[in-house]
């Protein structure tokens, strides 16, 4: 496995949905790159496929962002964001550019826009009793309007890998996968999933889906059934298997391309997303984990991982003072949990959601310092908040400190 020196990684995420209209002006692209260079950014992540399934490049398979029905990205018609941005970066040697692919999210409930969810309804996740949760598990912003597709549907797997193959043809330094997961604990309960799960455990599920879990009528709380630990393991293995296939696509194109994943840092609750982003060597002891859960750990498939430490509280002390449920409801605690779970297998980059620090630039500075001190760097989500809050000066100060020293 190729691991570059990630110790001083300063990663800037450029979300197309948030920045795409502004960046349709090529002068704004140049301005962004200038800011990034001056700030000491080492890696930029730009969207190749957005959270609702459209591509920012001209794909043979997917819909282009310019097809959005409300016209928000009309200025991108017949244009290719990846090639435009990369052409402006070609002479800049000290910033690596990675393309992000939002994998299993293929549409929006707000309109019929998006990826393949409306063309291929049979791909869509089947929910438990059609119970859709609109609540985020932890500190990540809500994405309940996103339509997810079933990660084990053969056509879904083929489609998503084809998109990744296309992205690999660009002159990039790496590929990132995001939303490479299930939508929440309520999906997927299709016949396909039932059949595959029964094959995995080697027996029929006597009471489906109650043996997996039940939902308490009054409180709507999930009560784990007898098969839930194996179900959690099976779901996580499904994601690991896809990540392995995606890695093989990337590395077979160019073994020097970086391959990374973004996940939420709230590992003890990540049964909902169906991902075990830990190392195969990490043995969790949680209410919902089987003794064999570590077989589903996917960390070793990656060159590095970004974990969302998306909390306003920076220190464990602050989390305790605010009566948070656990120490990992803080940037410090989340990084420590991430390092524990990854168990030294790959570099970990603590990641920040800048909106958490709106109106509190000192707390933002503190959060950057915490990630850089405790992990292999910092990932900043997202560029739009640096613009909105006029915070580029903070990056100049905080990210260039090592160079000044």
Quick tags:
405 residues, alpha/beta, TIM Barrel, eight-stranded parallel beta barrel, 12 helices, 33% helix
What does this structure look like?
This protein is α/β, with parallel strands linked by helices and 405 residues long. The protein has a single domain, classed as TIM Barrel. Helices cover 33% and strands 15% of the residues. The protein has helices at 16-23, 26-39, 81-89, 154-168, 191-201, 228-253, 316-321, 331-342, 361-374, 383-388, 392-399, 401-404; strands at residues 9-14, 43-49, 96-102, 105-108, 146-148, 174-178, 213-215, 222-224, 258-264, 304-308, 348-353, 377-381. Strands 1-2-3-6-9-10-11-12 form an 8-stranded parallel β-barrel, surrounded by 6 helices. A hairpin with a 6-residue loop joins strand 7 (213-215) and strand 8 (222-224). Helix 2 packs across helix 3 (81-89), helix 8 runs parallel beside helix 9 (361-374) and helix 9 (361-374) runs parallel beside helix 11 (392-399). The two termini are 32 Å apart. 50% of the residues are buried. It holds the Pfam family GHL10. This is Glycosyl hydrolase-like 10 domain-containing protein. InterPro entries: Divisome_Glycosyl_Hydrolase, DUF4985, GH, GHL10. Residues 47-259 form the Glycosyl hydrolase-like domain.
């Amino acid at each position: 496995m190729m691991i570059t020196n990630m110790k001083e990684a300063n990663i800037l995420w450029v979300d197309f949905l948030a920045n795409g209209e502004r960046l349709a002006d090529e002068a704004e692209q140049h301005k962004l790159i200038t800011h990034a260079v001056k700030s000491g950014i080492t890696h930029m992540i730009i969207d190749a496929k957005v959270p609702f399934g459209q591509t920012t490049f001209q794909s043979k398979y997917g819909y282009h962002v310019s097809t959005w029905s409300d016209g928000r990205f009309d200025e991108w018609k017949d244009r290719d964001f990846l090639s435009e941005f990369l052409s402006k970066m070609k002479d800049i040697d000290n910033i690596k550019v990675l393309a992000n692919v939002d994998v299993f999210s293929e549409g929006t409930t707000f309109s019929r826009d998006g990826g393949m969810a409306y063309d291929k309804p049979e791909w869509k996740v089947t929910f438990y009793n059609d119970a859709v949760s609109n609540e985020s598990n932890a500190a990540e912003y809500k994405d309940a309007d996103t339509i997810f597709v079933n990660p084990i549907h053969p056509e879904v797997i083929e489609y998503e890998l084809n998109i990744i193959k296309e992205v690999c043809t660009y002159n990039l330094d790496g590929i990132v996968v995001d939303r490479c997961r299930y939508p929440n604990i309520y999906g997927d309960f299709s016949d396909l999933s039932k059949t595959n799960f029964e094959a995995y455990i080697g027996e029929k599920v006597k009471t489906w889906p109650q043996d997996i879990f039940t939902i308490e009528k009054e409180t709507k709380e999930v009560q784990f059934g007898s098969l839930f630990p194996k179900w959690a393991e099976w779901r996580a293995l499904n994601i690991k298997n896809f990540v392995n296939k995606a890695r093989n696509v990337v590395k077979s194109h160019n073994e020097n391309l970086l391959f990374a994943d973004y996940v939420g840092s709230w590992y003890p609750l990540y049964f909902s997303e169906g991902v075990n982003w830990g190392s195969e060597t990490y043995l969790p002891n949680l209410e919902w984990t089987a003794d064999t859960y570590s077989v589903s750990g996917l960390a070793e498939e990656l060159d590095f991982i970004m974990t969302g430490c998306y909390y306003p509280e920076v220190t464990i002390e602050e989390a305790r003072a605010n009566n948070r449920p656990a120490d990992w409801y803080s940037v410090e605690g989340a990084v420590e949990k991430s390092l524990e779970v990854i168990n030294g297998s790959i570099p970990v980059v603590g990641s920040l959601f800048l909106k958490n620090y709106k109106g509190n630039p000192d707390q933002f500075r503190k959060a950057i310092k915490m990630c850089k001190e405790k992990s292999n760097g910092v990932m900043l989500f997202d560029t739009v908040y640096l613009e909105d809050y006029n915070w580029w000066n903070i990056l100049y100060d905080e990210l260039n400190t090592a160079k000044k020293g």
